[in-house]
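FAQ: What does a multi-protein file look like?

Like this. Sequence, then tokens, then the next protein.
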Amino acid sequence: MVGRINTELGDILIDKEVIAKVAGLATIECYGIVGMAMINVTSGIAKLLKRESLTKGIAVTFEENKLYIDLHIIVEYGINITAVTDNLISNVLYEVEKFSGLKVGKINVFVEGVRVDE
């Protein structure tokens, strides 16, 4: 479990896989993002993940009542990385906080590759 919300009716526990899925879906909606990436530890090569494997490119931790999210992405060639990642962070922050009711402390974006989108 990653997040806990205490209410007058009881506790709500949210698994980090659920948060990762919401963050992944918010990520792939953003312009300029080709997809999520998973790094092969032995070769160091980034692999583009299929839609059903989104969460493998995302790490979620929960500390001091805040979520911390690491996103590993592949971007489209020719786009402004700063503009795309600013939009990405804003979108993921909004969607995760709206969905979970938990505060996001920090979102780190790791651009693992570039791909020419046809």
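And here is the next protein:
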Amino acid sequence: MTFSQWLLVLGTLLLVLALASAYLRLLPVSSSVLYLLFGLGVGPIGLGLWQQDIGDISHWLEHLAESAVLISLFIGGLKLRLPLRAPEWRTAYLLAAPVLVGTIFGLTLIGHSLLDMSWGLALLVAAILSPTDPVLASLVQVSGAGDVDRLRYSISGEAGLNDGVAFPFVIAGIMLLQFESPNANEWLFWFAKDVLWAVPAALLLGYLLGRGTGRLVIYLRARHNDTVVSANDFLALALIAISYACAETIGAWGFLATFCAGVGLRHAEVDTSGHDAVPAEEAASGTLREEGQAAPVVEFGSNPGEHPQIAAGAVMADILSFGGLLERLLEVFMVTLLGALLVQHWDWRALPLGLALFCLVRPAMVVLLVRERLLPLRQRLFVGWFGIRGIGSLYYLSYAVNHDLPPLSGREATDLVLSVVALSILLHGLTTQPLLGLYERRQ
């Protein structure tokens, strides 16, 4: 497809979504299912506008998926306002670490024993597919900074943190495929560099950068009565870029640093608001943000610098609105692209692998490793099912393909990952809204 054809395809899709938004909201499916079907329509079994293989686009696909995940992680972190020692965070820590590690090992065993994959390939595919996606899981994450529902909060925290645990296992899978049997020194170096250093360094760097920058910006906005929206948009892009680049420079995980930068920026607002229970953007506008509505418009009055909380509210509202728009646009493009690629890469083995992941391995790990006092059994079952796979897995896959995988292993990993991600979009897209409705009625 030429650039003009891509513009025509995406423009058509966006126009349909805009004109039919009232009707689409009535459908019991998530919008990502519609994007996937649209991608199938422009692929080989439809209009035939897309004929390329993932090997032809893996380099720019890696950076595009990387951008989508970074924006989603930062905006996701910006919505998490509770203290880091709150029970909701403790559940997220369990989901992002022991539950994820158990899921990776369980899926690796299934891939090796049932699908006859090598240990390296099985580990790589499991590490790519196990993390909950921060982009496509938006329906089951918190709807705003004032949302403290424990189930939603736990999934939001998990989606932001699990990259720091999954990425080392992606690297380990690549090592096994490239070297077959790495020696003890190579494994020790991997553990020291990719786990002991990269994870805590990213957490600390991102949080301190976001919180420090946030306090400075809020102070300057309040002092100079600065309410220019574009300046706040620049702040979001700057923090995403700087946190990611600095983390990569020191050998830390950039995704994790960017998520923590969003959390740090939000906690700068909490400091400014005097730990008020109401987020600054809601208090400043006098309007609680409801799910599905646009970000609130902050009413500053004649002197917007009268109180730092008003300046903080302006910053938060502008960034959430701008970031949410970018996140939705990139989601449309990435899922449509997945649909266009799917026919060339469909692998029927994704059915047993995906169903084992969605229905057995992840739910079992959540039930076994998350304590009853943090989440009751019913909520743990919901969390076990809501482990949605998506754009993050596409990034990990592109990263692995671009790092000299053996050709046969690269093709097999590509087919399985794209097929399981598409299966996740379909199954979770069909079930998320009905299950959320059931959950909210019971709550």
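Q: Is there any per-entry metadata?
A: Some entries carry free-text notes. For the entry above: The longest helix spans residues 184-224.
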